[in-house]
Amino acid sequence: MGISARMAVQMRQLGLALSPTSDYDNRRIKAIAKMMRQHQSSLNAYDVELLRLAEKEE
To answer: What domain range includes position 13?
Structure first.
């Protein structure tokens, strides 16, 4: 999956590392990138926190 430069910058601003450190991080990045593409907009901190809470419940 390709991540656009604009999306990468937005994700970095949200404090999301793009380094392939673990499968969990990679899944999280892909999930966020997918949401960003679907909504064609940047995610704010509130959205990111909701995603984190949803992941904890899995």
So the answer is: 5-57
Q: Which residues contact 8 (CB under 8 A, 6 or more apart)?
A: 18
Q: Please choose, from the candidates 46, 45, 43, 51, the residue with its C-alpha nearest in 3D space to the C-alpha of residue 27.
A: 51
Phi/psi at 41 (5° precision): -155, 170
What pTM did the predictor assign?
0.33
Q: What's the number of domains the chain is made of?
A: 1
Helix or strand or coil: residue 18?
A: coil
Tokens (6 digits) for 20:
């392939």
pLDDT digits (tens, 9 = 90+) for 8-53: 777 777 766 555 556 677 777 778 778 777 765 566 667 777 777 7
